[in-house]
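Quiz preparation item.
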């Protein structure tokens, strides 16, 4: 019985299923699956047929050429060990297309089965995450993005986006049984709920755009599909308008903010102490300027009476307690003096000690808080209002600036495979960056990162992979959505410079675009 099942085709499908399952659950499973696929490829032989399929598949050659450029980049790299590690991370670019292009095309049932395994892994990964989230969301310093337990929360959010698109294609486009459509709809709602709970802004921003491409912009002459397009476009328009209005309401205090004149500010506290007014620092909380109406002696004395944590020390999550306290008082519309300190309740004190800087978000882990934090970071970056250390959005802008300067050093052929981090470190020193050494990271933009390593030649090669795939997928909603998800993620992430991101790209690129034209 087992021997009958153990055919090369079934082992091949098992290896791919394990590969797709490991994407959201385990890098170890991904590695084991690749070894299984490699062994099966060698044992199955039939190399003549495999070669015929390989030479007639341009998509496979395009992604192999991109990998080859990384190999060539080892010639002029200054960090051979890092370059070798990058070749290892991107090895799926070479292997997975090879395995897929060598075999006959998937049947519809096989493809559905593989995608179902992928969705199962995403459901399990998010399921463990949601349990962890509700167990720990009230912990001091807890970040909702930590609920992605097995892989990066950003990578998981991209996979969730793709899973949602495929599930919706079952509901809207395929002639599935009613119970499958109902079950798929429920999974879509659950995954969307998890995205909001995880506060994965990257996934939440990319999702509606990928849905528009999948169900509105994908070409089709079917009247039924045209009706679906109209429905999705209508819902999409309502969603985008609602989201824009929601974000506007959150950003409105920043938009309506008016700078103070020193002549309009009081000079002394009710106790006769002189206020400190730093009018050039435009940091805000809830539309109120933070660094005005400050009396350190009064707030220090009052705080140290009521808290065991020192005013001039740090809170429970390692941040400056003074800064957190002043932001919190400002969010309440209170001054930073003895009178303002009297407005703080025991709950307020606990929140400040735990690192909460805004009364609006005490005991909250909502998406509203994440959007507010993003706007707050951008506002501070615009006005140079304090350090943006540890603030992911503002830091990315700095990464992009330094990355662009590093790219211009060797724009044609790049600096070599594995040299990106070293080039960025040199550029941070040249620019006298205010970021600490620990925060001086890679560009967090795949286009810039590829350009630094391989120059415009490598960048052009990567873009050509997508151009070819777009042409092929213009009538295939799920494939089109996959490309959109990847391209948009490249703006704010070095998506394919990590193991899971590289395998996610290579795996689905192979499944969608590297199958032979015929069986």
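Solution:
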């Amino acid at each position: 019985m087992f021997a009958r099942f153990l055919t090369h085709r079934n082992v091949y499908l098992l290896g791919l299923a394990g590969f797709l399952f490991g994407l959201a659950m385990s890098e170890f499973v991904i590695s084991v699956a690749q070894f299984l696929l490699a062994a099966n490829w060698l044992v199955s032989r039939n190399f003549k047929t495999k070669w015929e399929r390989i030479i007639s598949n341009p998509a496979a050659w395009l992604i192999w050429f991109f990998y080859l450029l990384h190999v060539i980049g080892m010639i002029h790299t200054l960090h051979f060990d890092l370059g070798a590690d990058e070749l290892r991370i991107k090895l799926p670019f070479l292997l997975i297309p090879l395995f897929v292009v060598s075999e006959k095309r998937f049947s519809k049932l096989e493809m559905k089965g593989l995608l179902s395994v992928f969705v199962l892994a995403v459901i399990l990964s998010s399921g463990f995450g949601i349990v962890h989230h509700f167990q720990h969301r009230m912990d001091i310093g807890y970040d909702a993005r930590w609920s992605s337990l097995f892989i990066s929360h950003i990578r998981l959010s991209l996979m969730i986006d793709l899973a949602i698109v495929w599930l919706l294609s079952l509901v809207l486009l395929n002639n599935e049984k009613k119970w499958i459509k109902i079950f798929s709809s429920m999974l879509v709602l659950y995954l969307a709920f998890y995205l909001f709970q995880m506060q994965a802004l990257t996934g939440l921003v990319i999702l509606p755009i990928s849905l528009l491409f999948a169900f509105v912009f994908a070409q089709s002459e079917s009247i039924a599909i045209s009706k679906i397009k109209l429905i999705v476009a209508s819902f999409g328009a309502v969603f985008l308008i609602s989201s824009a209005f929601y974000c506007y309401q959150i950003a409105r205090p920043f938009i309506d903010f008016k700078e103070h004149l020193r002549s309009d500010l009081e000079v002394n506290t009710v106790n006769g102490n002189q206020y400190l007014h730093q009018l050039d620092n435009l940091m805000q909380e809830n539309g109120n300027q933070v660094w005005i109406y400050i009396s350190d002696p009064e707030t220090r004395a009052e705080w140290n009476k009521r808290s065991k944590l020192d005013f001039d020390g740090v809170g429970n999550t390692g941040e400056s307690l003074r800064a957190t306290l002043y932001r919190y008082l400002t969010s309440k519309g209170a001054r930073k003096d003895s009178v303002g300190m009297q407005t703080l309740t025991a709950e307020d004190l606990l929140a400040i000690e735990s690192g909460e800087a805004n009364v609006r978000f005490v005991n909250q882990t909502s998406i509203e808080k994440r959007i507010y934090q993003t706007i707050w970071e951008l506002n501070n970056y615009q006005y140079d209002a304090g350090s943006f250390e540890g603030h992911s959005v503002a830091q990315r802008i700095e990464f992009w600036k330094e990355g662009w300067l590093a790219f211009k050093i060797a724009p044609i052929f790049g600096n070599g495979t594995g040299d990106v981090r070293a080039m960025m470190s040199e550029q941070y020193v040249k620019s006298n960056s205010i970021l600490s050494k620990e925060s001086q990271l890679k560009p967090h933009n795949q286009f810039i990162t590829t350009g630094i390593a391989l120059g415009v030649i490598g960048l052009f090669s990567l873009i050509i992979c997508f151009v070819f795939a777009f042409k092929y997928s213009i009538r295939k909603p799920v494939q089109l959505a996959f490309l959109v998800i990847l391209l948009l993620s490249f703006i704010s992430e070095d998506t394919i410079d990590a193991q899971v991101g590289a395998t996610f790209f290579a795996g689905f690129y192979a499944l969608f675009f590297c199958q032979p034209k015929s069986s």
